[in-house]
Design goal:
The complex is a heterodimer of chains A (about 375) and B (about 400). Chain A folds into three domains: about 5-120, Butyryl-Coa Dehydrogenase, subunit A, domain 1 (Orthogonal Bundle); about 125-230, Butyryl-CoA Dehydrogenase, subunit A, domain 2 (Beta Barrel); about 230-375, Butyryl-CoA Dehydrogenase, subunit A, domain 3. Chain A is built from eleven helices and ten strands. Chain A has helices spanning about 5-25, 25-35, 40-50, 70-80, 90-100, 105-115, 230-265, 275-300, 310-335, 345-360, 365-375; strands at about 120-125, 140-145, 145-160, 165-170, 180-190, 195-200, 205-215, 220-225, 265-270, 270. In chain A, a hairpin with a 2-residue loop joins β9 (about 265-270) and β10. The two termini of chain A are about 30 Å apart. The mean pLDDT of chain A is about 95. In chain B, the strands form three sheets. Chain B has a four-stranded mixed β-sheet with strand order 1-4-5-8. In chain B, strands 2-3-7-6 form a four-stranded antiparallel β-sheet, with no helix packed on it. A two-stranded antiparallel sheet of chain B has the order 9-10. Chain B contains eleven helices and ten strands. With about 400 residues, chain B is α+β, with helices and mostly antiparallel strands. Classes of the chains: A alpha+beta (about 375), B alpha+beta (about 400). The interface of A and B includes residues 277, 299, 372 and 376 of A.
């Protein structure tokens, strides 16, 4: 058992942290979001080509730095500290994760392009009726000659307006919630028959509703075996869930730190409000939630390669705890700031918005408590 | 970073597991929930076996009798002790005064006191709290007045756990009545058989005799029994409290507690289903279990930090707060789970009494244990005091 970081891991964290401190201050972030693209593509290029950051979690023989889950978590935590709107989760954790898992020609072709920053992947999996059930899919991929024809509607696809590729879950067989008959495809985001309705999200990203209208996709877009994609999808979503929990550690650490700083300089009743014990104890409770989030994220990250049932129980335990912590820390931060906390003027409110979206991303606390119970608390 | 044990750690785990299986006293099996019914000899029998093996004080430096185990080995050891349901060892010597003596004591004090702590020949108690000095410990009034080679001590201590068995006590006393609260305190080791020491029982809600009042009337204590400098006892007191807090997370033991609750909830019926199938009760168990995992990995991260050279610091207050809350939630769920049969008052088996107590075995102690465990958020610095410590020492507010 070992909880230490390697020198390379420390270096990744320090390098990224310095870069983000220079590029991602609150005003710069606001300008990126307000720009026509809703992002600054130069940042992504720099992450890839100047820092080598997008290769951190890929093996060295694929041109990466030889890392894995831990590097993804480190990077997501740092991105969380500046509430970055980069598509790292979608492109590297989900897209890269799926490609690493299936390997083969498509992985050989696409992974180097992820590493050098030319590819952005969006994960089109959620459907309006599906809630957090990954098998609840109405999008149909119907066999058509050598390829498939795709029809259906995917909702709230983060980063889709920026994407070169879409990672899509679809039914190649079975009824709407069957575990069998689910397949995973990596397709060209600009293929004919893909209609997007783009919009900003409350936490600063761009997303889309995506309608597949007889979109023709080639046979080699299929990742893994036809109809047997659910275990792979569950696995990459678990990996992404832990990554989001790591991001939450960064977001909530900053919510806590910002609250401490504010309470020290805000005077009421003739003294800084940080002197009031009722607020001190709330800030201690925030500290304890942040620390426990870090602990749970470490735990789940270290269990991502265990057999599926153990992995899922660990990830659900982590997300259940982290979701509740994100809510508590976020709400406490706003409450301690008072009125200024609910304006757009301070960064704190923007951290709160991201924390709030993290709560339900890849499943609410309730969803994950339930999955944990199903796996570990049988009658 | 990795979770798996190395081959050497697996071999270590096997070694300690075998040792426990072979050496744990037969008469102490399955009594963990009823520790307060155990006699001094019951406690000492396991202590002496561990002392003989050289494993009684794994956290101590090797030169004073520690094992030299890594943080991971110590983690394995505590897991194995808990999963075998072993009774604990008394912390007052091993985790409290022992580390104070080997850190602050003179060579003579180390030679005189450490062997008795390790062997179990000396049973220690802690003289800190007073009727007027609880959370505000530094307001203590027990005074020690220098008289030649002795201090003459007068005052009253309270909540003194297991003082009825104690050979020695470590006491905080005021040696300078004019100094500011924390600056006039000294740390004295007092022979509990000294004339003028009186121990009176306090019976707590579960009917147990764990804690006592200790009265000190003109007790003469040799000056050589003062640890560290006169009026600098607060330094020892703070050091001891930080040490006390790390073990206080009680993770391994709470894991056993959660397993016991699951077993009860699978046995108890709730209508036509076992209690564990009740979604509300099930959610309480899963919340408890997940919070315990968070505590466990927080402790592991903290141990890793310690191994990297950061001693137990104020963040160990987090372990105390969360650990004590979880211990209480376990007893709360156990009592809830047993339903009606939480009520019958089981007085223990009297002489020649072989009548089976009322209700299922796991119910007998549910209520007394629940009552007793309210102590965990009060002792060792109440959880409110722990929050003050984090606010001041970690957050700097």
């Amino acid at each position: 058992m070992d909880f230490s970081y390697t020198e390379t891991q420390d270096m990744i964290r320090d390098t990224l942290s310095r870069f983000l401190a220079d590029t991602y201050d609150f005003d710069s972030r606001g300008k990126m979001i307000a720009s026509s693209m809703g992002r600054d593509p130069g940042i992504w290029k720099a992450l890839a080509q100047d820092l080598g950051m997008l290769g951190a979690s890929f093996s060295e023989d694929r041109g990466g730095l030889g890392g894995g889950h831990l590097e993804n978590a480190l990077i997501m935590e740092e991105l969380g500290k500046v509430i970055a709107i980069e598509p790292y989760l979608q492109t590297v954790v989900l897209g890269g994760g799926a490609l690493k898992a299936v390997g083969g020609a498509v992985a050989d072709a696409v992974i180097p392009e992820i590493i050098n920053g030319n590819v952005i992947i969006a994960f089109a999996y959620a459907e309006p009726q599906g809630r957090y059930n990954l098998a609840n899919i109405r999008t149909i991929a119907k066999k058509d000659g050598a390829g498939y024809v795709l029809n259906g509607h995917k909702g709230v696809v983060y980063a889709a307006p920026w994407a070169t590729h879409l990672l899509v879950t679809a039914r190649t067989g079975g009824a709407t919630t069957d575990v069998n008959g689910v397949s995973l495809f990596l397709i060209d985001a600009n293929a004919k028959g893909i209609v997007r309705r783009d919009y900003p999200t409350v936490d600063g990203f761009q997303a889309s509703e995506i309608y597949f209208e007889n979109a023709a996709i080639p046979a080699d877009a299929l990742l893994g075996d036809e109809g047997a994609g659910l275990p792979l999808i569950e696995r990459i979503v678990d990996e992404a869930t832990v990554a989001v929990c790591a991001e939450s550690c960064g977001v909530t650490a900053k919510l806590h730190q910002g609250t401490l700083e504010y309470a020290r300089q805000r005077n009421q009743f003739g003294q800084p409000i940080s002197r009031f014990q009722v607020l001190q104890h709330r800030m201690v409770d925030m500290f304890m939630e942040v620390e426990q989030s870090k602990s749970m994220t470490t735990m789940a990250m270290l269990k991502l390669d265990l057999p599926a049932a153990e992995r899922m129980a660990a990830v659900s335990a982590c997300k259940a705890k982290v979701s509740r912590s994100a809510k508590f820390v976020g709400q406490s931060a706003i409450q301690t700031h008072g009125g200024i906390g609910i304006t757009q003027e301070l960064a704190i409110g923007h951290f709160f918005k991201r924390a709030t979206m993290i709560e339900n991303q890849f499943g609410s606390a309730d969803h994950h408590y339930e999955r944990f119970e199903r796996l570990t608390l049988a009658d | 970073m990795q979770l798996e044990f190395s081959p050497a750690e697996i071999a270590f785990q096997k070694e300690v597991r075998n040792f426990i299986t072979e050496s744990y006293p037969e008469n102490l099996r399955s009594v963990q929930d009823e520790e307060h019914d155990l006699s001094k000899e019951d406690f000492l029998s396991w202590h002496r076996i561990l002392a003989k093996k050289g494993w009684i004080a794994p956290a101590w430096p090797v030169e004073y009798g520690g094992t030299g185990w890594t943080a991971t080995e110590r983690f394995i050891w505590s897991e194995e002790l808990a999963s075998a349901d072993c009774v604990g060892t008394m912390p007052f010597g091993l985790s409290m005064v022992g580390p104070v003596i080997y850190t602050f004591g003179t060579p003579e004090q180390k030679a005189k006191f450490l062997p008795g702590i390790l062997s179990g020949d000396d049973w220690w108690c802690q003289g800190y709290s007073e009727p007027g000095a609880g959370s505000d410990l530094a307001s203590l009034r027990t005074k020690a007045v220098r008289d030649g080679d002795h201090y003459v001590v007068n005052g009253q201590k309270t909540w003194t756990t297991m003082a009825q068995h104690a050979d020695w006590g470590f006491f905080l006393v005021r040696t300078d009545p004019d100094a500011k609260a924390q600056e006039g305190i000294s740390f004295l080791l007092i022979d509990m058989k000294s004339p003028g020491v009186t121990v009176r029982p306090i019976i707590t809600l579960g009917g147990e005799h764990e804690v006592n009042e200790v009265w000190l009337e003109d007790v003469r204590v040799p000056v050589e029994n003062r640890v560290y400098e006169e009026n600098k006892g607060w330094t020892c007191a703070k050091f001891l409290l930080a040490h006390e807090r790390t073990g206080i997370a009680a993770v391994a033991r709470s894991k056993r507690g959660v397993e016991k609750i699951k077993a009860i909830a699978r046995t108890e019926q709730d209508g036509d289903r076992p209690l564990i199938a009740n979604p509300f009760f099930k959610r309480k168990i899963s919340e408890l279990e997940i919070d315990l995992t968070a505590l466990e990995f927080t402790e592991l991260r903290s141990l890793a930090g310690e191994a990297a050279g950061n001693g137990p610091g104020p963040e160990s207050s987090l372990l105390k707060i969360k650990g004590s809350e979880i211990q209480q939630r376990i007893t709360e769920l156990a009592l809830e789970a047993v339903g009606h049969y939480g009520a019958p008052y089981f007085r223990g088996f009297g002489e020649g009494d072989n009548e089976h107590p009322i209700g299922p075995d796991y119910a007998h102690r549910a209520a007394p244990t629940y009552f007793n465990t309210r102590k965990t958020t009060i002792y060792g610095g109440s959880n409110e005091i722990q929050r003050n410590i984090i606010a001041k020492m970690v957050l700097g507010i």
